[in-house]
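Checklist before submission:
- one chain only
- standard amino acids only
- sequence pasted in full

Submission:
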Amino acid sequence: MNIKSNLKSLGIALTVSAFTFACNSETRTETNSEIDEAQVEVNETGVEAEREYDEFAVWVNDQSSRAESATEEEWREMKTEYNRREAELDAKSDTWDDEAKREWQEVKDSWKRTEDKVQKRIGDIDVDVDVDRNNN
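Returned file contents:
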């Protein structure tokens, strides 16, 4: 009788151990899957941000070349588009690493130099036109 009792206890202990191991393996697998999914999301976000940055850097270079001979109207359009795109990327730049932030600053500095050249060439186009006129 004592042997039967010991075998039962051993069987129950093995069964409980097997279930515990199975649960832990399943939990580890689920946790690893969640970590993998999170890493994929972070990588996709990083790739998307890099793509947007690269596109913007190319756009700035193209527009800087065009700006050398742009009319005032064309310059206004370029400047408006630049401001819109810069604001979008500035909002995302908090998550970038130091190298990406440095490169981003270089692109903005490049645009500032272009802006300065154009302002000298065509003058300040952001003129306030609210003028009081007296009829004499």
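Reviewer check: Residues 29 and 104 are 39 Å apart (CA to CA).
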